Each structure stands twice: as C-alpha cells, then as structure tokens.
Amino acid sequence: MKTIDDLEAQIGGLAGKRVLVRSDLNVPLDQSGDAPVITDDGRIRASVPTLRRLLDAGARVVVTAHLGRPKGAPEAKYSLAPVHARLAELLEGVSVGFSPVTVGPEAKAAVDALADGELLLLENIRFNAGETSKDDGERGAFADELAALADAFVSDGFGAVHRKHASVYDVARRLPHAAGGLVATEVEVLKRLTTSPERPYAVVLGGSKVSDKLGVIDNLLGSLLSEGDRLLVGGGMVFTFLKAQGYEVGTSLLEADQLDRVAQYVRTAKDKGVELVLPTDVVAATAFAADAEHDVVAADAIPADRLGLDIGPDSGAAFAARLADARTVFWNGPMGVFEMEPYAHGTRAVAQGIVDSGAFSVVGGGDSAAAVRSLGFADEQFGHISTGGGASLEYLEGKHLPGLDVLD
C-alpha cells in the first residue's frame, strides 16, 4: 500500500492540495442527557496523528466519517457535531470547521473556503443513501460527488475497511490515494498475528453471540492455532459452549442453532492439541440489571431461573493463569456485561492477566477497547488497541477486505 509519503511525491507535494480523509470517528455516545456525551474518544484520538501529518504539510484536509447506523437520511442523534467539538480540542491551534452536509454546493463552498493547514469535518457520511448502497451505480455516483471535493484521498478509517462503501472503496478508485498511518499500523499488527505469531498464542473471545465469531473460530482452529496454543471463551457466547456439553444454562443467552457447530469446535480443539478454556464458574443473576440479585455458581449448575452475566472469580484467575506464559495474545469481546459493576470483574481479570503476561497483545476494538479504558487501563499497557473490531475479525478470518484491497 502507498504511504502518505508516496502520495506526497506522486502529487507534487501536499501544500495547498485538498485531501479527503476517511477516518473512523464512530464513537459511543451517552444520549441520556440534554446533549450527547462521548463515553470513549479512543477512535478520535487515534485519527489525530494522520490528520496532523497532513495539516503540518499544508494540506487542506476534508474529513469524512460515519457515526452509528442511520438509514441513508439525516438523524439528529447520529450527528457528528459532538465529534467535531472533541476533534477541535485535540487539534488545538488548527482551524477545524464543520459542514452540516456531506456533498452539494454548501459542502463545496466550505471546502473551497479552506486555507492551507485547515480542516473541515463533513456531516455523517451515512446520512447519504449512496454511501452504503449495494447498487454500484448509485454508490459510484455518490463517490463522484465526494471525489469532486478533493485532489487526493487518504484511507485512515480501519474500522470501515471491511465495507464496500463509497467513502471507503469507490473514492479510492477515483483519486490518487494512500493508506493513512492508522490503517498501515493496523495491517502491520494483524499480519503479525496471522503470519508469524510468537507462541504460545492465546486468543480470548467474548461478547454476546458465538455466531458473530464463527468465521474467526473456523480460521483459528483451522490454521492459526497450533498444539500448545489456547482459545479462551467467555461472555454471552460461552453459554452455547456450555450447553453443547450438556450443561444447564438457565435463561442465559443461547444460540441453539449453533450447538452442533460449537460441539465440533470442542472436538477439533482437542484433536489439534489446542487448549479450549471455558469458565468453571459464572455470576448468575435474576435479571439483566446491576441491582438484580446475583451469586457465583458453578458453570455446570446455573439455576434454571437465572442468567449468566460474567465469568466467575475462579474462572478469571484461571484465564489469567493461561495467559501468564503466552507470547502473543489477541482479545476480542468482554467477559461479561462490564458496563455494570457487578459483572465487570471477569473482564478486569482478563485485562490484568494480559498486561501481566508481557506478551505482544492486541485488543480487538469495539467493546473490548471501551472496556479496558472504562476499567482504568491505559492504551500503553497493551501492544496495540485496534480501532476496528469487525474489520479485525474479518482479517483474522482470512477474508479480503475491500477497503484494503483497493489500496494495494
């Protein structure tokens, strides 16, 4: 992939050039108050180095990004206005404008008004139906409008590179382009996880649904993990594993249609000598609530009227022990409902175990990244915190990602 240095040479310098940057600014928002509040600004902070690189070179930077999943039309709750305010704080000393529209005469006028070293953030790209359209013509027509705003394109929104969207894929086919620093780093890290990982290699998977992880588990057990490596499973998805072994899981989250497939994973792991680590105890509650009655119970004895919301303390200690001598760790998905304090201890135990191991560690974006920060861990305590959970998983599945393929 071309770097920004390559792009700079290709177009005869960045000064005075309009550079369209696809960033990933899809941050979680607390919408409960009078105004939305960003609860984790990690993705915004991660976007800053590439933007600084371009601004310092005198480029006129136009940033496009999405927030949430609007249905191709404006929705106030998905406005990038709060992101604009935070980005302006992080880019202190830089003129950071905001366009309430993405394309059209108003957007073009705002871009034309930029001076060298200034930045304009366009409103949520997904307010336009053409961005995510499955129709190549409709998506291409929207990409034409975006491309008309710029002289070059930099792809730096790793969290969206698994999508064949106009601002990710089609614009790169229309303008001189390069990978931003964030995308380049993400790819370098993921190559390290998939081509020559130092072993023992431990993969920790959590989150709510096993169906979200089927592809990556297939690839892990098929080619990435070897004898002596470990696969640790927690979160809501673990109850399908427990049920597949004949255990009662009460009212816990269960994907009954995946039981046969999960049972096969158990057999495959055993045959390959990959240690499958499941919790031996769980925190079981009477309801999905922080103030619900809850107790630690054996994983094979969950009461029929309770649901598991976290791995238990013995399991947290056991997971940390199986991480202690690992040399490479990939983690995607919390161990429980970490947003509620009674069910955050398993996720905290795993995070601490990874930090203490000294392994090269990658936290796979999304809820995992938000979890480690909310629990008081610093980004620097891990080898890398990815900005793209879905993109990271698809890369580990061995899939081709459209937003990366178009940059090669």
How is this structure best described in words?
With 408 residues, this protein is of the alpha/beta class. 38% of the residues lie in helices and 16% in strands. The protein contains 16 helices and 17 strands. The chain has helices spanning 4-10, 42-56, 81-90, 105-112, 129-132, 136-147, 166-170, 181-195, 214-224, 238-244, 259-272, 313-323, 345-357, 366-374, 389-396, 402-405, and strands at 18-22, 29-30, 37-38, 60-64, 96-99, 119-122, 152-155, 177-179, 201-205, 230-233, 275-277, 281-285, 294-298, 307-311, 328-332, 360-363, 384-385. The strands form four sheets. It has a six-stranded parallel β-sheet, with helices on both faces. The longest helix has 15 residues, at 42-56. The radius of gyration is 22 Å and the shape is elongated. The N and C termini lie close together (5 Å). The mean pLDDT is 96.
Could you list some keywords that capture this structure?
single chain, 408 residues, alpha/beta, 6-stranded parallel beta sheet, 16 helices, 17 strands, 16% strand
Quick recap of the structure?
With 408 residues, the chain is α/β, with parallel strands linked by helices. It has helices at 4-10, 42-56, 81-90, 105-112, 129-132, 136-147, 166-170, 181-195, 214-224, 238-244, 259-272, 313-323, 345-357, 366-374, 389-396, 402-405, and strands at residues 18-22, 29-30, 37-38, 60-64, 96-99, 119-122, 152-155, 177-179, 201-205, 230-233, 275-277, 281-285, 294-298, 307-311, 328-332, 360-363, 384-385.
